Amino acid sequence: MTQRVLIYTPYERIWHWLQAVGIFALALTGLVIHRPDLFGVVPFTLAIHIHNGLGLILLFNAFLGLFFYVTTGTIRQYLPEPHDFISLGTAQLMYYVRGIFRGAPHPLEKTSERRLNPLQQVTYLVILNVLIPLQLISGLLMWGAQMQPDLLKSVGGLAVLSLVHTLGAWAFLAFIVVHVYLTTTGTTPLSNIKAMITGYETLPAKSHAAEVERLARREETE
Asked: What is the pTM assigned to this prediction?
């Protein structure tokens, strides 16, 4: 028995697709800036302006998202549960490494109360707390290089900053490739993508109810 469950609110879906389009456009303009001889589809100066503007837009959108997740309590979706993180994380890792290729059932059923497994939670925490700040700081320093050349020298110069920024960009691209691949591991290859468009996903009714009961018991013990 299954039921159609609201997984993502309209704001979350809009926020997700804005970030996705923005990151993709940042990657394209970054390629033009890094190798204009190979990817010069737009003028170099224009690519820099677009890249900087997109960065500021995504930064503003990220702060809006943070405000939404904190004020609505949805941020709990991204916080691992310490008491069973190791066991759940190990089970999820073994599923990705071996179980998924043998047709094994998913170790953790998705619900509206728990959309992310432990490995996804850790990945998003690293991206939000390490990768995004790294890209932001290195990008701002390069952007202000002409106005504050001494500050640029104090952090190793443009060569170091561009290397850090480029490595961060490749890390983002690697995440996107893995992220897109994992969207195909739902109940059907397109179910996760459809859920991010419509907000709804068809889930086993029994497991959904069991998860709600588990979370209720957890709140009683805290």
From this structure: 0.78
